[in-house]
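Sorry, explain these tokens?

***
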Amino acid sequence: MTTAGRPQQRYDHRLRDLVQRTGDLTIATDLGVPRSTARGWLGKAPRVVVSVDVAALKAPELQQEILRLRRRVKKLTALLRLALALLRSSGFTLTHERLPDGRAKIRILRGVDRAREFVPLGALLRFLRLSPSRFHAWRRLQHACALDDQSSCPRASPHRLTPSEVRAIKDMVTAPEYVHVPTGTLAILAQRLGKVWASPSTWYHLVRKFGWRRPRLRVHPAKPKVGLRTTRADEMWHIDTTVIRLLDGTKAYVHAVIDNFSRRILAWRVAETFAPVNSVAVLVEASRGATPSETSPVV
């Protein structure tokens, strides 16, 4: 028949240290510690005890620590509420957004690792607006490969372009010395030069995907923004012929003379044919109503 053993009594290490420093057994015996136990403490070497730093603080010091921590918690709570309000008002989310820079993803992963000691992972992902599947995909790629969208890892497909080849295509597409070469011909030229081996359709796809703009040089001089300007009436006339297609399929030609200064129609005529005689007739009719001038108008 087994008998239950007497439970071992444990005492605070600070009481034991105090008895060892002072050598006074009455400090322990007054608190109910057996005299044999207190005498045994005197014959033993001090033990190294690892405890919370605040355990050695006195009551006033603990109160000050509590007040300081409360102020810090209130400050952090206010900042967190402000950050949440900013996130909700801006509509920020990582669910449908891409982070092409791998360093940004690594910073997010490290921040999540530090915060997981105090906050559950699900709450952190909801706060970051990041889906769990995407987070774990980043975690797997962090150890196996770089996190950049255009990674420098070994290619899974032998036909996939490397980032250096994509940069070479961009340099040739945007280079001024190849401005006269079409994009399709530029792909063949790159193969002959031994820079990039890619089809013209791949070049067109990359140009559309990244929005690369080929440099354009103006061959013809720029046209003037301001047309002819006069200072008085009947200094310069414009003659114009407008073709109007009727419902029955026939055409009508409207000849008109317009003054450059006043923009007034001086004379007009509708004819069935486009003949120079109609233009001359309109000019003659406009000259009859023109004001006398030392110089004849320019037509």
Observations:
- The chain has a mean pLDDT of 81.
